Amino acid sequence: MQTLEPFEKPSLSRAVSRKLQPGLGLECDACSMAIKYSAKFPTNQIIANVYDGNVWQKVVHYHEECYQQLDYPYGEPIPSQPYAGKSRYFSEPA
Ligand SMILES: [Zn+2]
């Protein structure tokens, strides 16, 4: 006779890191500085979907360094698939 372990529901809030792309004009939620694209120093941005309970609240963006300094408030960022411009299987999550 087996009892089912309670399913441990992961927090829905999660973060991904993504190669920064030009022209997005985003602001870092931690330092309020623009997250600027630099072709010379390509950087990752952290994109976190924030949920309260099951209700989606917002998307926040961070510099990768800022997110690290905050000690991963939305979990360790999951590297998103590298953008493959030619792949027809690539679809951008909304
Ligand atoms: Zn920042």
Can you tell me about this structure?
This protein has one domain (14-79). Helix content is 6%, strand content 32%. It contains one helix and six strands. The strands form two sheets. The protein has a four-stranded mixed beta sheet with strand order 5-4-1-6. The chain has a two-stranded antiparallel sheet with strand order 2-3. Strand 4 (44-52) and strand 5 form a beta hairpin. The longest helix has 6 residues, at 64-69. 17% of the residues are buried. Residues 28, 30-31, 33, 62-63, 66 line the site of zinc ion.
| Secondary structure: number of strands | 6
**Count of discrete domains:** 1
The multimeric state of the shown protein is single chain
Q: How would the global form be characterised?
A: elongated
Strand order of the largest sheet: 5-4-1-6
> How would you classify the helix and strand content by structural class?
mainly beta
Helix content: under 10%
- Mean pLDDT, nearest integer? 78
The ordered H/E elements are EEEEEHE
**How far do the termini sit from each other?**
44 Å
Distinct compounds present: zinc ion
If you compute it from the alpha carbons, what radius of gyration comes out, rounded to the nearest whole angstrom?
16 Å
Largest sheet: 4 strands, mixed
Count, helices: 1
The residue ranges in which pLDDT falls below 50 over 5 or more consecutive positions are none
